Amino acid sequence: MCPDREILSAYFDGEIAAPWEREIAAHVATCELCRERLSRMEETRSLLKEEEAQACRAPMERVRRRILAHVPQERQRLSAWRRQVSLPLPVAVLAAALLLTFGITLAVLATRSTMGYIRVTKVPAGGTEYQFAVPYDKVEALLKSMGGADANIESVMTIPKNVKLVPVGEPRMGKANEFPRKKP
Amino acid sequence: MITRRRSGIVPLLLALAVAHTHAQAQAADTDPKEALQELLSKALTVTVSARVLPPDAQEETPIWNAESTKLTLPGRSIKVRLDGENVRIYLICTPYLQDDGEVLLLAQGQVWFTESQDKENRYFSTFYSIPVSFGEKVLFFPLGLSDADTQQKNHFNIEVEIKIVPYEKKQ
Lengths: 184, 171
Known about the structure:
The structure holds two protein chains of two kinds. The termini of chain A are far apart. The longest helix of chain A is centred in the first third of the chain and has 39 residues. By secondary structure, chain A is mainly α. Chain A is about 55% helix and about 10% strand. Chain B is α+β, with helices and mostly antiparallel strands. The longest helix of chain B is centred in the N-terminal third of the chain and has 28 residues. In chain B, about 25% of the residues are buried. The chains are: A mainly alpha, B alpha+beta. At the A-B interface, strand 2, strand 3 and strand 4 of A face strand 1, strand 2, strand 3, strand 5 and strand 6 of B.
């Protein structure tokens, strides 16, 4: 007697345990009708596998397009500079405090330095004066990298050794008539 | 699109080549003597005089002076170095001719100064741009300009004078 459709389907799916599985296998080996049913089941399974892949592709693509259509255009093209990052509040506060401390330290160091500054001023003659003052050791390194202070010096004048010169202010330059006390 | 771009570049390259060849031909025709004369007509004489003045404000006779005269061209710098026992001064002057016939003097002064063995060294670098007429004197005080108070402390004053005039061939 042939097994009914449900039992044969369960056998096809490997859901029948021994010894019934062996019994059905022995029957199928001798029954043309059952072999034909199993063959149809096999065809149906293959057909479903192929169609499943093709049938899913189109709906998935439609869904993807719909999602993208709802995402704002700017967000898609947002550069790294404009991208927003969310931080926990304590971390953001800590970062801001660190930045502030760093800035204040830099400002204090800059104002404390007596020898390091750049100053640009308009001179009465109509020109511009640029003053630089930097620590000695840094200047030496700078000049070394520039090829030395003595490079391309055309004339050398030697001041007598008995003349002890003392700076009385910052270097100044201008037209002779700007310095009325001097009568060269 | 690429073809269109090429068609625009080719005439441009041809025009440049023709212009270059024309310029070369013209340069070859220039007489070296004329070229030298043209160069000398733009040459400038820069005189740099340095002097150390005594502390007494009334005394104008320098206790030391030196002068250097250099021939240069607009845009080409002349360099002078003054060496003292505790000071070294660099003066780099670059004159430029302006459209109105006057000169724009770009000057850089560098001062290296050592107070004494146990004190710190100082360095000052200053740039100036000063429009001047031919023959007009420019003064540079590398160690500052002393006032009456500092002069009473017996400090010497050093000043450097710069004067620019057109080059004149000596007969």
